Amino acid sequence: MIFLIWGLFLLLNSSSIGCAERVELFWDIGTLNISRDGYNTWDSICVNNAVPIPPVHVTQGDVLVLNVRNSLDVPTAVHAHGIYHNYTDYYDGAEMVTECGIPPGENFTYVIDTTTQAGDLWIHGHVHSQLTDGFRTPFIIHEKVKPTTYDEEKLLYFEDWNERTFNDMVAIDAKLKLADIPPLYRTMLINGVNANTSKSLHFEPRKRYRLRIMSLSTSSWIKFRMPGHTMHVISKDGVEAEPMEVDGLDLGPGQRVSIIVTAHDTAEFNYMYNVTLYANFIPQYPGLMPRYYSGLIEYQKNAPLKTIPAEDDAQLVWNDVINMQARDRMPLLSVDRQIVLSIKQFTPDHGIPYYSFGDYAFNHSLVPILFTALSMGELASNSSVYGPQAQAHILQYGESIELLVYNDNSKDHSLHLHRGEYQVVEVGPYGDAIANNRTVVEFQKSGPSPMRCDVVTVRSYSYIKLRFHVNRGMVALFHCHMMHGGYFGLAATFIAAPELLQKYVKVPEEAIRMCKLQGIKTSGNAAGNQGFDMTGLPPPILVNRK
After folding, report:
1. What pTM was computed for the model?
2. Is there a contact between 525 and 377 (Cβ–Cβ < 8 Å)?
3. Which of 4, 236, 423, 446 makes an SS bond possible with 471, Cβ 3.0 to 4.6 Å?
4. 3-state class (DSSP) for residue 219
5. How far apart are CA 190 and CA 24, in angstroms?
6. Which residues, 6+ apart, have CB-to-CB distance to 262 below 8 Å?
7. Alpha-carbon distance 529 to 546, whole Å?
8. Residue 18: predicted pLDDT
């Protein structure tokens, strides 16, 4: 389960696929001019000419076959967020990292094996700003055996929604100085529709419910509470947890949890659930930031509403991952090597900041990183062949890695690891928080069986330590899931055991054809050349200018 833990599943086993259920979907990706939040009308990305995109449900062991038609006027790619992809890296959906993307008017089929995992995942676009523009939906892999007893399950997913497309916002920002860029006050969707018109959550007395709570937001955090009810967190990002009683959930972009809630004994009252949409980098303004929403927990139609006094968030218990324990009791990993990543920010004259984990902002190569790893022989173990814009780190088979991430930045960041999970082992204050005696994050260490997840929030002026074990070859993107961070350079790549990638990965001809149609090379270094010749590669964007 931890990053690469499924070392026994080195290849997509054809016999296991033969025994599994085949779930086949056909998605035509396009746009629909619509107002989804009741305020703003623009071209939302849709599937089969409809929004919201229907959630995808399979059972563990099924093979999801996703046939995609790209009816956009730009390339697209589909990322199954949380899927391990054991030596099928080319289905991960990260444009110019593991594939070339699907050009306009073309078709491509993703094959997603769920043999080794279950839980709360999601599917979203992974080209430019398509996630922000509506290309996102839950992906639930139902366990064959329930992790705990419950009578019924329900899905609640939350999205922030912009007043215009992401590219339109960037175009406006680019015309202004930083001080003149207006704050962006987002609205919210609940289960794909205007949060103010969302359906009630129906409860029956004495029933035990599993609620799958998902933040599909792109630049905002979500707080969720059910006053008058007790919540127990039983999983985080698809990884089962020891049950943890909480008063509320605080979820960054891309984070998902399952909770157990037991309904009251009678239907005497109805209740409200409360949702707060917030971001620490957007100026507060009454009614706009933070935004407050509520929904009805309906026991009985027309029953009176139970009044529950408001409580101070600071006095409540939240789902802080550092305090959670993995249900399988996997012990704290020892460390073979530490990789230090420091979040940097540089704002040029046009006002749009760039970010990085090192000296340079992440940017696309001229050859997908996976294809460089597959075609460069022994040189694939040298990070230089991937170019400075890839922020590449070579990982050795069998080693345990600790990521130490420093955030000396005024923004919170939501960090996602493709293709696996990490243990969250330590957090604490850093930089300005120490220099100015500002308490943003208290120093804390995990317990003996740290919780694992694929998205974690690193708060402003703090640090976090994450650990994982390298049990297979792969190319994995590590990036900020806050759109402005990920879109403008806050990413790195891990190339794990490239010698195993070269041995076991066979890229389908159809994936090669997608590249050829776009004139993208499928071999060579980052520039498509041999050796260390980077002729033709655009210069990287220098962010660390101290």
Report:
1. 0.93
2. no
3. 4
4. coil
5. 27
6. 206, 207, 208, 209, 229, 230
7. 32
8. 41
pLDDT at 283: 82
Is the preceding omega at residue 52 within 30 degrees of 0, hence cis? Answer: yes
- Please tell me the distance from the alpha carbon of residue 239 to that of residue 220, in angstroms, as a whole number: 23
CA dihedral sign, ordered 382, 481, 360, 537: positive
For every residue of 410-476, DSSP letters joined together read SS-EEEEETTS-EEEEEEEE-THHHHTT--SS--EE--SSB-EESEEEE-TTEEEEEEEE--S-EEE
The DSSP line for 224-249 is: EE-TTS-EEEEEETTEEEEEEEESEE
Mean pLDDT, the chain, as a whole number? 91
Backbone angles phi, psi at 109, to 5 degrees: -115, 125
Specify the pLDDT at position 480. Answer: 95
Contact 392, 495 (CB under 8 A): yes
User: Largest alpha-carbon pair distance within the chain?
Assistant: 74
Residue 433, C-beta contacts closer than 8 angstroms, at least 6 positions apart: 439, 440, 441, 460, 461, 462
Which residue, chain included where needed, has tokens 């990287």? 540
The residues that bridge with 80 in the sheet, in sequence order, are: 123
Residue range 381-426, pLDDT digits in tens:
999 999 999 999 999 999 999 999 999 888 999 999 999 999 999 9
Distance between CA atoms of 365 and 438, rounded to whole angstroms? 40
CA distance 226 to 224: 7
Check whether the bond before 290 is cis (ω within 30° of 0). yes
- Cβ atoms of 137 and 56 within 8 Å: the answer is yes
Q: Which residues pair with 479 in a beta bridge?
A: 416, 491
The DSSP result for 8-61, as a single string, is T--S--HHHHHHSPEEEEEEEEEEEEEESSSS-EEEEEEETTBSSPPPEEEETT
Place of tokens 């996102």: 136
Which DSSP category does 370 fall into? H
- Write the burial class of residue 142 (CB in 10 Å: 0-12 exposed, 13-18 middle, 19+ buried): middle
466: its two tokens:
């994450």
**Do the beta carbons of residue 353 and residue 484 sit within 8 Å?**
yes
- C-beta of residue 482 within 8 angstroms of C-beta of residue 458: no
Q: How far is CA 330 from CA 62, 75, 239, 266, 326, in A?
A: 26, 41, 12, 40, 7
**pLDDT tens figures, 336-369:** 999 999 999 887 765 678 899 999 999 999 999 9
Length of the chain: 546
As a whole number of angstroms, the distance between CA 405 and CA 343 comes to 7
